[in-house]
Design goal:
Layout: E1 2-6, E2 10-15, E3 22-26, H1 31-36, E4 43-49, E5 64-68, H2 72-77, E6 91-94, E7 100-101, E8 106-109, E9 117-118, E10 121-127, H3 136-139, E11 143-150, E12 153-154, H4 155-162, E13 177-185, E14 196-201, E15 204-210, H5 218-224, E16 235-237, E17 261-266, E18 270-278
Parallel strand pairs: 5-16, 7-13, 8-18
Antiparallel strand pairs: 1-2, 1-13, 2-3, 3-4, 5-6, 9-12, 10-11, 10-16, 11-13, 14-15, 14-17, 17-18
C-alpha cells in the first residue's frame, strides 16, 4: 500500500489500473492513527483523482529518531571534512517534527542563519507499533513501512555544534525536514537492503548509492534504539549516502541556492521533490538572524 496524507489532513491510499492516479480515502484521522489501529482501517467510499488533491507530508510522528554515519562511502568521505569530532556509525539524535514538510512544499533558505545549505538523501523507517527493549529479529514485526527523507543541513551551523560533539539545530530549522511523497508499507518492499538511491539538483545527479551499503541493518538499527521507546507512527532515519555538498573540493559550487529544485528518489519509494525559495518568498520580514554569543544590551 502507498499511504498518503492529502488536502487538509485526509488520509488515503494510492490506486489505479494504469498508475497511481487515484486516491481512495481511508476512514481515519491521521496516518499515525492508521498505524495505531494496526492498519485495520476501512474506506470512506471517496475516490479522487491524484491531480485534484494536494499531497502533504505523509505522517507527522510523535518522535523522529535521526541516524548519522550509517553508509560506508559517506562515512569514509566525512574524513575529508574538518569536523572537530568524528561522526561515529549509528549516532542518533531527535529531529524537530515541526520542521517536517511534504512533497512540493518549499524549503525556505534562512539567509540570516546560514550560507551553506546542504542535502542528504535518506530513508525514514516507519514504526507500526509501540514497543521497547526488543531484538533485531523482533524489530521486523515493528517495521511498518518506508518513506523518502531529505535531511536538509546548515553546514556552517553544524560545524559550530560539532565543537561539542553533537548536532541538531543545524538540521532542525523550519522546513529542513522534507518527507514523502507517500509511505510504502513494508509488505511492498521485498528487500529494503537493496534499494537504489539518487538525489538530483536541477536534474544534475549529486548523490547515488544503495541501501546495501548500510553499516547497520534496518532491524538492528531499530532494535538498538528501542530502549528509548517507540510509539506507533514514529520514524527513524537510515543515514545518508555519499555525495553531499560539504565533502566536495569546492562545496560552494554544490550548496543549495534559492531556485534549486531538489529531487530525492529511492527505488520503490517514489520521488520527493522540493524547491528552495528565498526567505522573502515565505516571510515579509528581513531574514532572521541571531548570534548566541553576542553581548546582551
Amino acid at each position: 500500500m502507498k499511504l498518503v496524507t492529502f488536502d487538509e489532513g485526509r488520509v488515503g491510499r494510492l490506486d489505479g489500473d494504469d498508475g497511481l492516479d487515484t486516491v481512495i480515502e481511508l476512514d481515519c484521522a491521521s496516518t499515525v492513527e492508521f498505524f495505531q489501529r494496526d492498519q485495520q482501517v476501512g474506506e470512506t467510499g471517496q475516490r479522487l483523482p491524484v491531480a485534484d488533491v494536494r499531497l502533504r507530508a505523509p505522517i507527522t510522528p510523535k518522535k523522529f529518531f535521526h541516524t548519522a554515519g550509517n553508509f560506508t562511502a559517506h562515512h569514509q568521505e566525512l574524513t575529508a571534512v574538518d569536523w572537530s569530532h568524528p561522526v561515529h556509525k549509528g549516532i542518533v539524535f531527535f529531529q524537530n517534527v515541526d520542521a517536517i514538510i511534504g512533497p512540493d512544499d518549499d524549503i525556505v533558505y534562512p539567509e540570516g542563519l546560514t550560507n551553506e545549505l546542504d542535502y542528504e538523501l535518506e530513508i525514514a523507517v516507519v514504526l507500526g507499533r509501540a514497543g521497547k527493549f526488543f531484538s533485531p529479529e523482533e524489530a521486523v514485526e515493528h517495521i511498518a513501512g518506508y518513506t523518502v527523507f531529505n535531511d536538509i543541513t546548515a553546514r556552517d551551523i553544524q560545524r559550530r555544534e560539532m565543537q561539542s560533539g553533537v548536532f541538531s539545530f543545524s538540521k532542525a530549522i523550519d522546513t529542513f525536514c522534507p518527507i514523502g511523497p507517500y509511505i510504502v508499507t513494508a509488505d511492498e518492499i521485498a528487500d529494503p537492503h537493496d534499494l537504489a538511491m539518487e538525489l538530483r539538483v536541477n536534474g544534475q545527479v549529486r548523490q547515488t548509492g544503495n541501501t546495501k551499503e548500510m553499516v547497520i541493518s534496518i532491524p538492528h538499527l531499530v532494535a538498538y534504539h528501542s530502549p528509548q521507546g517507540y510509539s506507533a507512527g514514529d520514524l527513524i532515519s537510515t543515514g545518508t549516502v555519499s555525495g553531499v555538498a560539504a565533502v566536495q573540493p569546492n562545496p560552494f559550487d554544490f550548496y543549495l541556492q534559492a531556485g534549486d529544485v531538489v529531487e530525492a528518489e529511492v527505488q520503490g519509494l517514489g520521488i520527493l521533490r522540493n524547491t528552495v525559495v528565498p526567505w522573502s518568498a515565505a516571510h515579509d520580514t528581513e531574514p532572521y538572524s541571531i548570534d548566541l554569543y553576542a553581548p546582551v544590551d
